[in-house]
Amino acid sequence: MGNKVIAIPEALAPAYYAAHTTGWRRDVWAVLHPPYTAWHLSYVLIGASLAPTLNIVRLVASVLAFFLAVGIAAHALDELRGRPLQTEIPGAALMAAAAIGLLAARTSLSQMDVPTRQAYVMALVDPGERTAAAAYTGTVRYLTRPFGPPVAGLAQTISLGLPFLLCGALKAGYDLTLWAWFRHVPLPAPQSPLAGTGAGADADADAVEEADAVEELS
User: Fold this and answer.
1) Number of structural domains, the chain?
2) 46, 159, 178, 181: which is deepest, by most CB within 10 A?
3) Are residues 100 and 123 in the same domain?
4) b/e per residue, 193-210, with b = 16+ CB within 10 A?
5) What is the pLDDT of residues 7-52, one digit of tens each?
6) What is the 3-state secondary structure (H, E, C) of the chain?
7) Which of residues 87, 111, 135 is at a domain's end?
């Protein structure tokens, strides 16, 4: 058999969006991976455009959460595995960026259901029971919070991503359970604008403010 000539591939050219500088600016730009990040953020905009009404605040929060989780956290974790982008960012800095990105993304979306839930609970109960209802629901939610960190610490020994899966499943299950339980419960008929300008409207506003205060103190 004759000797085979093995062609050695040339070094890959930098991506078209790569910065032409060196140092930390180039590394940060590479980790952000703008085309991939913009691609995923466009899905959020497409989904928002399909909604019957557009809520700018929720749209901004959703875009920010996806940017933090995908554009920063996911890419930082990818770079930790084998340095595919060949950056010189310290591993500790990448890990910190991933943790901060995930935490900030969760903060952007974790409380989006609170105003809806509060308003729904206030509409389900009689006006005289609204303060007690807010106290009960808020107390139960906050009493269960201390169990989260031990469970997450145990779950991460099995898999690093398991705590995130459990958190998402519990949150989704919580909201879906509330919807399943109360979707057939009739709500009081909405008042006309003129009927809601008196003492009844003031009482409703006071009840919602009391619910917010109870949840903050719980």
Assistant:
1) 2
2) 178
3) no
4) eeeeeeeeeeebeebbeb
5) 545 455 556 666 777 788 888 888 888 888 999 999 999 998 998 8
6) CCCCCCCCCCCCCCCCCCCCCCCHHHHHHHHHCHHHHHHHHHHHHHHHHHCCCCCHHHHHHHHHHHHHHHHHHHHHHHHHCCCCCCCCCCHHHHHHHHHHHHHHHHHHHCCCCHHHHHHHHHHHCCHHHHHHHHHHHHHHHHHCHHHHHHHHHHHHCCCCCHHHHHHHHHHHHHHHHHHHHHCCCCCCCCCCCCHHHCHHHHHHHHHHHHHHHHHHHC
7) 111
In this structure, the chain runs to a length of: 218
Q: Which two tokens stand for residue 10?
A: 């040339």
In a domain, 2, yes or no: no
Q: Is the pLDDT of residue 190 over 80?
A: no
Same domain, 145 and 199: yes
